[in-house]
Design brief:
The complex is a heterodimer of chains A (216) and B (270).
Chain A (H helix, E strand, L loop, with lengths): L2 H42 L4 H13 L3 H14 L6 H27 L2 H10 L3 H31 L11 H12 L2 H33 L1
Chain B lengths: L8 E12 L2 E12 L3 E5 L6 H9 L6 E6 L2 E2 L13 E4 L11 H11 L5 H14 L15 H13 L5 E4 L8 H18 L2 E5 L3 H7 L2 E6 L2 E6 L6 H8 L3 H5 L21
The chains are: A mainly alpha (216), B alpha/beta (270).
């Protein structure tokens, strides 16, 4: 890769990377909230909500993320409403990844000892108080490594949002290749930028898992 | 002998039955617990001791029969919550909150449930932790404490609620002999000094005799003995554990006795 090519393409790709990061953070927040809500409903929800939450997780884990994004972006337009591509990306990724994150939270909640619920009940804590002050803090430690692993997957999934026209890192890379060619160099650079973002997180998960297995 | 026992029952179980699946764990249990007494439930594993305590605490509901705790009918699910605060419970596995310090474990319920100011709850918790000999462990997390220390934190956590009854579900089963004595002394102390009714499950007959005012023996879900510890006869001991009474009662005199060396004898040691 010549320095000229690097100087021309890098600013455009970095701009795309910034959009990728903003989209990732928004979808991580959205996906975590959706996932936590689904996990809580599935575990303690009233009436038919556990079934509904299960249906949600099974549905989205059983369909590709691109279908979800297409449904949201074009589906909303089909019903006569306009939706911004960024909003469609955030909603689509949040809903899709939320299904996986829900399973991570659910397994974490279920791994907290039953005795913690019982003692909370004896002490007079309501279910909500017990959940937020006793169960969730313990769940947090258990689920953090798999949760970060899911966030990694989410960051990489943002590249699919390019398919509905969002100018994130992948889309910018495609645009440069369309204009000047050099696919190996440009896609190589795009891959390096994704790697720079994801590698520290994946390294943290590996170190944390090793520490946990040593401690246990 | 505890002279502060009131004739008035603070807990009443009448015709209580309970099944888990096809196994009937409790069969028509009738039991009055008098205010201010230390009552120890004894019996072999699976005799229903823990289930009795869990029903008294409201953690389990009886399939049939009536349960009254401090004049609240627990068999009426709508009123079961009223006993919160009247009844404290300590568990075999301590069940401390692992992400909270000893002090936070004790202040959590008063602050969140009763809305006590954190400073006031903290002062009460410090006093109680001091009383159970843990004044220097306030900032320790449960993982940094020994089993006996964790159980004493659990006792302080139950006491801070100012309960009238403390239920102790095999509180010493995970402890060594020294900590066993410390924890049992603590339970006796709160009974004698605060007048709190203590109901406790134990495997050890020696300990039960040493600490209780009244012994209730369960076998296969029925009450087979209810009386003063001195009244426990060889025949009842046989019924309770399915052993020769000499094995249960006479082990202390035997030089070859090793607690836990035989399954049937483990119950006699702590």
């Amino acid at each position: 890769m010549t320095s000229d090519l690097l100087m021309t393409s890098l600013p455009i790709l970095l701009q795309g990377l910034l959009t990728t990061l903003i989209l990732s953070v928004a979808a991580i927040v959205g996906g975590t909230l959706v996932g936590l809500l689904a996990a809580v409903l599935r575990t303690f929800g009233p009436w038919g909500t556990p079934r509904l939450a299960r249906l949600y997780t099974e549905l989205f884990r059983g369909t590709p993320v691109l279908i979800t994004l297409m449904f949201i972006y074009f589906g909303v337009s089909y019903f006569g409403y306009a939706i911004d591509v960024f909003a469609a990306g955030v909603i689509g990724l949040s809903v899709y990844q939320g299904a996986y994150i829900a399973e991570v939270f659910r397994s974490g909640i279920e791994s907290v000892q039953k005795g913690q619920w019982e003692v909370s009940q004896i002490l007079g804590l309501s279910k909500t108080q017990a959940f937020f002050s006793v169960i969730l803090p313990q769940t947090g430690k258990i689920v953090l490594p798999p949760l970060i692993g899911q966030y990694l997957s989410l960051i990489k999934d943002t590249s699919i949002v390019s398919m509905i026209g969002m100018s994130e890192l992948m889309h910018q890379g495609q645009a440069i290749v369309d204009r000047i060619g050099k696919p190996v160099e440009i896609y190589g650079l795009v891959a390096v930028l994704y790697f720079v973002v994801c590698f520290p997180l994946s390294r943290w998960v590996r170190r944390h898992d090793r520490r946990r297995s040593l401690l246990s | 002998m505890n002279t502060a026992i009131a004739p008035k029952p603070i807990i009443n179980l009448s015709g209580v039955t309970k099944s888990f699946g096809t196994t009937q764990v409790l069969k028509e249990i009738n039991l009055d617990v008098r205010q201010g007494e230390v009552l120890v439930l004894i019996g072999a594993s699976g005799s229903g001791k823990s289930t009795v305590l869990r029903i008294m605490s409201g953690l389990e509901t009886a399939d049939a029969g009536e349960v009254w705790v401090n004049e609240v009918p627990l068999h009426d699910a709508r009123r079961a919550r009223e006993i919160r605060g009247h009844v404290g419970m300590v568990f075999q596995q301590f069940n401390l909150f692992p992400h909270m310090t000893a002090l936070e474990n004790v202040t959590e319920a008063p602050v969140r449930v009763k809305g006590v100011a954190p400073a006031t709850a903290g002062a009460a918790a410090r006093r109680l932790l001091d009383r159970v000999g843990l004044a220097d462990k306030l900032g320790c997390y449960p993982a940094e404490l020994s089993g006996g220390q964790q159980q004493r934190v659990a006792i302080a956590r139950a006491l801070v609620q100012e309960p009238e009854i403390i239920l102790a579900d095999e509180p010493i089963a995970s402890l060594d002999p020294r900590n066993t004595q410390v924890v049992m002394d603590a339970l006796q102390h709160i009974n004698r000094h605060f007048g709190i009714t203590v109901i406790c499950n134990l495997h050890s007959l020696d300990l039960a005799r040493k600490y209780c005012d009244r012994l209730v023996g369960l076998a296969a879900g029925r009450v087979v003995f209810d009386g003063a510890p001195a009244a426990l006869t060889d025949r009842v001991a046989r019924d309770l554990y399915g052993l020769e009474s000499a094995d249960v009662l006479g082990h202390a005199a035997r030089p070859d006795f090793v607690p836990g060396a035989r399954p049937g004898l483990a119950l006699a040691g702590s």
